Structure prediction request, 245 residues.
Amino acid sequence: MATVIAVTSGKGGTGKTSLTGAVSSCLAALGHRTLCIDMDVGLRNLDLSLGLADRALMDFTDVLQGRCPLERAAVEHPDIRGLFLLTAPLTLPDGLTEEAMRGLLRQARERFDYILLDAPAGLGPGFQLAVCGCDRAVVVSTSDASALRDAQRTVSEMGGRTERIHLVVNRVQPKLLRRLHATIDDAMDAAGLPLLGVVPEDSRVMLAANRGKPLILCANKGAAVAYLNIARRIQGQKVPLMRIR
Ligand SMILES: Nc1ncnc2c1ncn2[C@@H]1O[C@H](COP(=O)(O)OP(=O)(O)OP(=O)(O)O)[C@@H](O)[C@H]1O
Ligand SMILES: [Mg+2]
Prediction:
């Protein structure tokens, strides 16, 4: 039975899609059947960043509306066994209910160990669909005040749906090292959330996405290690926070 994790932020561009793709790849590499679902209707890009744009032809609404079974719509990555993607449609059809989304997740829970939902920015209908059936949520924020305020608003908006909400602080820069502890503590205080991980600023994140190659297949330091640590913590392992140099 899968754990369903919504990856959210409020503010756009904080690193939700990068984290969803990288952590899902790590969970699959650790031996778990993992499905990532792109919930960013109209602005999907998880398929591109994982190099699955040519294969992911059916989207989650095709499954929701009965046009395609989940087994066919969810495509497996050719280079990472156990990593599956269900992509987003270009528009959200009328009448898609949260109940239908929960139905899709019920099907998926029986077939996978982890399901990660890459939510869109903002708190609109795509976000609501992404969080409606989750067991836990990861809020991705950079350490700046506006992203942290949006993170906090996201948490209030999720109120009651899940109590297991964790923070990932992304794009932490080495030059802030001396102030890092204060920054991360402040970030946790500002978001009011326990910390799941800290990901350094790392140009390999963008380079890997542009090449359509999962980060763990092209890097073994920096952000790649941070995402692997996050995957391990999701599994329940105790992994110390990495030192960012
Ligand atoms: N740790 C990092 N280091 C360097 N660049 C990063 C890092 N994380 C994300 N990025 C880059 O930041 C940009 C935005 O990342 P991403 O698309 O993952 O954010 P998002 O939260 O999904 O955005 P949106 O809200 O538009 O869906 C991308 O170009 C990505 O490569
Ligand atoms: Mg995104």
Notes: The two ends are 38 Å apart (CA to CA). The beta strands are 3-8, 34-38, 75-76, 83-86, 114-118, 136-141, 165-172, 195-200. The chain has ten helices and eight strands.
